[in-house]
Structure to design on (74 residues):
């Protein structure tokens, strides 16, 4: 399936919803993450631009029972 041109995606989103599509520079994303971290006191990330490893660790820290159990030799 071909990927749409981003301008087509934006036009489609704006045509069917009462919103305007905007973007943020990487420095702005970093500043927003830091601000939310301070305001919320919880780990914060951006799943689109930051490491999946950090997101995984956030989830596993919140739900430690999801961590794989170590293998034990019999």
């Amino acid at each position: 399936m071909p990927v749409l041109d981003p301008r087509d995606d934006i036009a489609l989103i704006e045509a069917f919803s009462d919103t305007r599509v905007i973007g943020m520079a990487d420095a702005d994303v970093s500043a927003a993450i830091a601000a939310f971290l301070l305001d919320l006191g919880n780990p914060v990330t951006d799943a689109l631009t930051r490491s999946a490893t950090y997101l995984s660790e956030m989830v596993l820290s919140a739900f430690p029972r999801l961590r794989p159990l170590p293998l034990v030799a019999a």
